[in-house]
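Board notes, transcribed. Complex of a protein with pyridoxal-5'-phosphate.
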Amino acid sequence: MNPIVAGGGARLVTRHPHLMQNYGRLEINIVRGEGCWLYDESGNAYLDLVAGIAVCALGHAHPRITRAIAEQAATLVHVSNLVHHEPAGTLADRLAELAGFDAVFFCNSGAEANEAAIKLARKHAWRAGERERNVILAAHGSFHGRTLGALSATDNPAYHEGFGPLPGGFAFVDFNDPAALDDAIDERTACFLVEPVQGESGVVPATHAYLAAARRLCDERGALLIFDEVQCGMGRIGRLFAHQVYDIVPDAFTLAKSLANGLPIGALVVRGAAAASLQPGDHGTTFGGSPVPAAAALEHLAIRDVVDLDAHVEVVGGLLRAELLAIARDFPHAFEVPRGTGLMLGLPVRDPYQAKDFVRFALDRGLFINAAGRNTLRFVPPLIISADEVRDAAVRLRLAIAATLAA
Ligand SMILES: Cc1ncc(COP(=O)(O)O)c(C=O)c1O
């Protein structure tokens, strides 16, 4: 176990005044990562339960991923989608084969993957001659990204403020309410876009009944069902693809985040007639699926072939959940019962306490976690986290909680 940094331990933070604001950065400058650990410029170690926001599934500096990146970088870094290249082609084949789907579009991020999904849904209806079927239905509490289209499908007024007018043709329906879906999906619905587990709104899993109703209603009424698996996919909830956990097959799903274990890549994976909706020239990207991220993603999948990560996630996810449950029981005035599944867990914080305060005190104890939604601590560690590291994290978290409550 790495030593627990004493509260307020010395931390240098080199500031770069020209770096534009983004999420709002913590006062910490990370210079290196290895496995589930991050190191700052003063040499402090942090057990990483954020994984670059659910990205580094195999941890930091995984030797096989590093090698695959280096070898591909020494061979071909970029050539564009004007030509074929093996890394993207092979990755598309692998993903299609693993999912039992037909076609894959590559881009560079989750938001872009959802943009592609939105465009695909509309073009699919348009090609079928259904010119009025253009509404993108999303769920309350959704998060699909920050580009204008994905943002329009995101139900968070704070993220919309000051960016209007947003594109039209988006509607929202209550999450986990099959009856509301029944009212909402109609002949104008191009697709229902939904996260099987809502991440940014504080880790809220969809019920099986909700997604099953979505599948049935989309089939009956001619809409596409599209799952946003950007955060909950790639093994995070215990199977490679989130829809496999639910045993419900969407018409398309999006991936990004951990697909290449840290390199930027997004993917829209499509099956059936919809797979032919985007024809040459309809949609495009200069970098999407470029050789280095594609090679990293292929190596990620190759590692999964020999390491049973799903079984591991079940064990360590169960352990982390049990630790969080015990914490919620021990501090009932501060926390509600944890939510989530696999290694995508949330610990809701009760008012008047603030998730961001626990995050700050955790950092002082060498634990990196983050806040999501209105007031939830989110735990999305590398999937390779060991049982010992989970126990270590729980010790640090309890110390951070005690310090926060005493402050
Ligand atoms: C479910 C979901 N969709 C889309 C996105 C957007 O991904 P990106 O930040 O790569 O654009 C996120 C990011 O958190 C996400 O959680």
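The chain has a mean pLDDT of 96. The pocket of pyridoxal-5'-phosphate is lined by residues 53, 109-111, 114, 143-145, 195, 199-200, 228, 230-231, 256 (CB under 6 Å).
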